[in-house]
Amino acid sequence: MSDLSRPFGPKIIAVANQKGGVGKTTTTINLGAALAEKGRKVLVIDLDPQGNSSTGLGIDPEQRDYTTYDLLIEDVPLGELILSTETPGVFLIPATVDLSSADIELVANEKRSFLLHDALRQVGMDRFDFDFILVDCPPSLNLLTVNAMVAAHSVLVPLQSEFFALEGLSQLMLTIREVRQTANPDLRIEGVVLTMYDARNNLSRQVEEDARENLGDLVFATVIPRNVRVSEAPSFSQPVLAYDTLSKGAAAYRSLADEILQKNNTIAA
Ligand code: ADP
Ligand code: MG
Questions:
Q1: Which of 14, 57, 124, 245 is the most exposed place for a label (fewest CB within 10 A)?
Q2: What is the mean pLDDT of residues 66-75?
Q3: Is 249 close to ligand 1, i.e. is its CB under 6 Å away?
């Protein structure tokens, strides 16, 4: 395989954790919105058949003529796949339940792990000039998640501040190691972000302590608080940054975006 990585192309981040309900979709949408607010052009790829990031960004199922399934498997022009959203600077390739069959259909495909990698590096991508591509992964370490890790420069791991949170991490880290050894040696861990954090709760503080002790610098200084405005925003088809721009949740995602911009040596606006 030729090295098609483009140093000046978009930074591709897979938002992954095989546990459901830990904040992958919420982080994808709101980090995307925060990066866009800071002047970056962001593409969100919904790689979960549940299509939650598509809904959360205001793209109804009727509007999903083409989806990530087509990006992976069909030859559909990028101009048809990439939708603009109500959030300026945030674009989306949506998902529908179609995608759940992709996992099975792909097994026979020789290039099955590289479909997203190749799709995101097609020449037509350049003209969109994205700064970041955020891939919202399904709650599983299946072929879709592997596609995201093969395509990505890094993995961002949301970790719910709850008991057992760290247990699932070792399996995730094993998968990352496997992908490094086989398809994507340069895959990095962007960081681990604690989500749904409740400072009044001993358990949250304990999970944070354990995470920082075990993972050190990999854990972002920013923690995302449990905040009802964050959970309400998707039913208004908006990132929390638009739904309640002064909320604690919005502030936390802005701070996470700043950390990521710093890590990637681009100055936060
Ligand atoms: P995943 O994509 O990992 O399955 P989600 O992002 O969908 O997880 O989050 C699971 C649920 O938790 C959703 O109902 C979401 O609204 C809620 N949630 C996520 N982050 C927060 C937060 N910081 N505060 C309150 N609720 C949250
Ligand atoms: Mg999700």
A1: 124
A2: 93
A3: yes
Spatial distance between the Cα atoms of 267 and 269, rounded to a whole number of angstroms: 6
What's the count of helices (H) and strands (E) in the chain, helices before strands?
A: 12, 7
Nearest atom within ligand 1 for CA of residue 27: 6
Ligand 1 pocket test target in 140, 226, 231, 244 with most atoms within 8 Å of CB: 231
Residue 196 CB–ligand 1 contact under 6 Å: yes
- Closest listed residue to residue 156, CA positions, set 46, 257, 8, 37: 257
Give yes or no for residue 21 CB within 6 A of ligand 1.
yes
| pLDDT tens digits along 173-184 | 999 999 999 999
Calpha distance 256→194 (Å, rounded):
11
Closest by CA position to 126, among listed 46, 6, 12: 6
Q: Is 22 in the pocket of ligand 1 (CB under 6 A)?
A: yes
Output the pTM of the full model: 0.95
